[in-house]
Structure prediction request, 319 residues.
Amino acid sequence: MSIVLGTGDPAHSQIEILQLLALYLWPVISLCLAKGFGVFQVRQLDGPDRFGEGEPANSLLIVFLIGMAVPFILGGHLGRLFPFLTVPAERSFAQGSAAQLASLLVMLVLIPRTRSYGGRRMGINLGRLAPGILLGVIAFAIVMPWMFWLGQGVEWIIRHYKFSVDTRHLVFQMWPTASVQYKVVLAITAVVVAPIWEELIFRGAIQTLFLRLLQITQRPYAAGGVVAIPTERAAPSVIVPGKTSQLEPARPWHRWAAIAIASIAFTAFHEPYSWPMIFLLSVGLGYVYERFGNLWASISLHVLFNGANFLLFLLSGRH
Prediction:
């Protein structure tokens, strides 16, 4: 769940005017930061390998499949955790949130027990939390102004062509009539649980697995970039169940392709009106993870994005 704040009407409140004034300068700052951190050097995208030497992708794939299965297995039994929610729609959403949290916890327990080096290779060990948060803050400063202006453009198109679309996220649609207890569930789910779960699924699993798949399918190269021709003494690389051959390091186009595939899947997970903004956000999330190999960085960027939209919604007075 990535929240995209929609105005729902053409009128701008005072807070929105302040947003406009601030965001005329923010893109300039964003471009300077992007230049300073080498974001525009797209061919130099290179990050750490997320698999240990000889480690198969099977274990990560199994964890991913189990994590995706948990909400379907437990979803129907978690409604009893929320007896204080009497409205069916509220209980249903809270039930889904609890199932998402259960899935997240199961994956966090399984990862260090099924993979070499535990969560360190995935960049989700606690030792990388602090630098991950810092990277997330910097990435947020680079990405957020473009997300805002792209969102404004989408809303202008919707209003100009009179499309019948409620551009408010489901959370914001439900907020005005929600009970206090339910508002707590909404806020925690939208700002904390959903970003962590989605980054573990879409960046930690899907993007990583597709990157490995692209590495496996490339032809083996010898030193100097020359295609290695198998001989009797040098057998070609093969893939056997439970093992992986020595693979060439991932190339930039492998990483960009994995980012694009994960971003398409992530975008399809959201409301159609938000697809342009969500795809841009996902590319940013994928880039941060692919370059630094720190899942806390993409989680932090995602949390900040959802949290900023939630805060703007509360300050706008539209609730």
User: Anything to note?
Assistant: DSSP finds nine helices and no strands in the chain. The first helix runs from residue 14 to 36.
